UniProtKB/TrEMBL annotation:
Residues 265-277 have a biased composition (Basic and acidic residues). Pfam families: NIR_SIR_ferr (PF03460). This is Cobalamin biosynthesis protein CobG. It comes from Streptomyces xanthii. Gene3D superfamilies: 3.90.480.20, Sulfite Reductase Hemoprotein, domain 1 (3.30.413.10), Sulfite Reductase Hemoprotein,Domain 2 (3.90.480.10). Residues 1-25, 245-317 are annotated as: Disordered.
Length: 448
C-alpha cells in the first residue's frame, strides 16, 4: 500500500487494537479498531457529517467488503463499521485513504466536528458554517499539536440557530447576528472573532487547552470540562500571538443563541411537559444568513420541511436506530447522485439530510424502509447495539425497544454505560442484571 496523503515517513500500525497516536484513551477510530462481540469496529470521523456521494459509496463498499454491510451513525454524525474481520485494518485504511476520508492518519481520531446540518440550505442561521468546516478540518490536520487531543474532544460549529451548541462541545463557534463574526466559547473563555478567522481561532483554542492540560499532574485530562482551571487568559494570549483580532462579549454584544429543544420539536415547544419546557425555554429568537433576519429552524429531524433559499425543502431521513442497511444507504446515495449537490449530511441525531431533494423523493426512500415522517414513533426511538454485538450488554435491547413517551425520545441501553444516548431530555430505559428494565427521565450530554 502506498503512503496515504498526510502520512509521516514513520510507519503507523494499521491492525486492530493499534493507534496512530500515543494518547491512552480507548476511543476507536479508522486505524485503531475496537474488538466487539460481532467482530472488529471502526469509527470513521466525518467532520460536520458531510459526505460526497462518491465517499458515501466508498463507505458502503468498505462496510460490505470488510464488515456486516450496515452503516451505523453515531451521536456525533460519524459512521461506525461493525463486524469487521480480523486483520482488515490495512485494507480499510487504503479504501478510506483513496476516498479522501483519511486525510491524516495522525489526526484521524481527533477530527470530531459537528456542524449545523441545515446551514446554508434553509435560510436560517446567522452564517453559513461550511467555510468554517473546511477551514477547521484543514487547520486541525495541519497542526503538529492537535494529535494530542483525545478522541472524545469535540468541536461544534453552530450557525446561530442553537442546534449543535447544545451537544456539550469543548470548543464552540457560534454565528452572530451581524453575519461577519463568531462567538468562540471554551468553558469560561468567550471571545468574538471575525468570521474569516473563526476556524483558525478554534484550533488555537484547542492547542491552548492541550498546553493547560499538560500542566495537570496525577491524572489525564481528556476534555475541557475535566481541566478544572480557567482558560480565558491563556487563549487570549495565544490568539493575540497569532495576530487574530478579537473582543470579549459584553456591553451591547449579542446574547448567545438559545439552546434548541429536542430534535422532534419544531417551532415552539408545545406538547412538552412544564418542567421540560422551562428547562429548554421557548424558541423566540430569529436568525438569518449573514445578518438577514429569518425564522430559526430546529434540529434536522425526519420530515422537517423548512423553506430553503431556492424554494426547495431539504429532505431528511433516518433508519431504525440510525443503522442503515446496504439497500437503505444505496437509496440515499443514488438519490444524492442524481442531484446537483451530490452530497449527504449526516447529523448528530442519526438522520441524513439530502441537499436538493424534496417531498417528491420520499416514496422511493420509504420503499427502502427509511423514515421521513417525524410523527412516526420510530423517529423518536433509539438504542445501543445490545447483544449480540456488545459483551457488556445484558440483553438484545433492539429486540425489546419500543417508544414509551408521547413526545420525548426513548433510548434503550443494555447497561449503565448508555453508549450513544441523546443529548437533552429523553426517556432512559436501561437493562438490569435481573432481566428487567429501569425507566427514568434524563437530560444529559451524549455519548458516542
Amino acid at each position: 500500500m502506498g503512503m496515504l496523503p498526510g502520512m509521516s515517513p514513520a510507519p503507523i500500525p494499521l491492525g486492530p487494537g493499534t493507534s496512530g497516536t500515543s494518547r491512552g484513551d480507548a476511543c476507536p477510530g479508522a486505524l485503531r479498531l475496537h474488538a466487539a462481540d460481532d467482530g472488529f469496529l471502526a469509527r470513521v470521523r466525518v467532520p460536520g457529517g458531510v459526505l460526497t456521494a462518491v465517499r458515501a459509496r466508498a463507505l458502503a463498499d468498505a462496510a460490505g467488503r470488510l464488515g456486516d454491510g450496515v452503516l451505523h451513525l453515531t451521536s456525533r454524525g460519524n459512521v461506525q463499521l461493525r463486524g469487521l474481520r480480523d486483520g482488515c485494518g490495512g485494507e480499510l485504511a487504503e479504501v478510506l485513504g483513496e476516498a479522501g476520508l483519511l486525510p491524516s492518519p495522525l489526526h484521524e481520531r481527533v477530527r470530531n466536528v459537528v456542524a449545523s446540518p441545515l446551514s446554508g440550505l434553509d435560510g436560517a442561521g446567522f452564517v453559513d458554517v461550511r467555510p468554517w468546516l473546511t477551514g477547521l478540518d484543514s487547520a486541525l490536520c495541519a497542526s503538529s499539536v492537535t494529535p494530542g487531543l483525545s478522541g472524545r474532544f469535540l468541536f461544534a460549529l453552530d450557525d446561530g440557530r442553537g442546534d449543535v451548541s447544545s451537544l456539550g462541545p469543548d470548543v464552540l463557534l457560534r454565528g452572530l447576528p451581524d453575519g461577519g463574526s463568531a462567538q468562540l466559547v471554551v468553558a469560561d473563555a468567550e471571545f468574538v472573532v471575525r468570521y474569516e478567522d473563526a476556524a483558525r481561532a478554534a484550533v488555537i483554542a484547542a492547542e491552548s487547552f492541550l498546553a493547560a492540560a499538560s500542566e495537570v499532574t496525577g491524572r489525564r485530562v481528556w476534555r475541557v470540562a475535566e481541566l478544572g482551571a480557567p482558560l480565558a487568559e491563556l487563549i487570549s494570549r495565544d490568539l493575540m500571538a497569532a495576530g487574530l483580532r478579537m473582543s470579549t462579549p459584553g456591553g451591547s454584544a449579542p446574547a448567545p443563541a438559545p439552546q434548541s429543544p429536542p430534535d422532534f420539536v419544531r417551532g415552539d415547544p408545545e406538547g412538552l411537559d412544564e418542567v421540560t419546557r422551562r428547562s429548554w425555554g421557548a424558541r423566540s429568537a430569529t436568525s438569518g444568513a449573514r445578518g438577514t433576519a429569518r425564522p430559526a429552524t430546529t434540529h434536522a429531524s425526519p420530515g422537517d420541511e423548512p423553506t430553503t433559499t431556492n424554494g426547495a425543502a431539504p429532505l431528511i431521513a433516518t433508519a431504525p436506530f440510525g443503522s442503515f442497511t446496504p439497500d437503505q444507504w444505496a437509496a440515499l446515495t443514488d438519490l444524492a447522485w442524481r442531484l446537483p449537490q451530490r452530497e449527504l449530511r449526516m447529523t448528530p441525531w442519526r438522520t441524513v439530510v439530502v441537499p436538493g431533494a424534496g417531498p417528491a423523493d420520499r416514496p422511493a426512500l420509504a420503499a427502502a424502509g427509511l423514515i421521513t415522517d417525524p410523527t412516526s414513533p420510530e423517529a423518536r426511538l433509539g438504542a445501543c447495539i445490545g447483544t449480540p454485538g456488545c459483551a457488556k450488554s445484558r440483553t438484545d435491547v433492539r429486540r425489546d425497544a419500543e417508544p414509551r413517551h408521547p413526545t420525548l425520545p426513548t433510548y434503550w441501553s443494555g447497561c449503565e454505560r448508555r453508549c450513544g444516548h441523546p443529548a437533552g431530555p429523553y426517556l432512559d430505559v436501561t437493562a438490569l442484571p435481573d432481566g428487567t428494565y429501569r425507566t427514568t427521565e434524563e437530560r444529559a450530554e451524549p455519548r458516542v
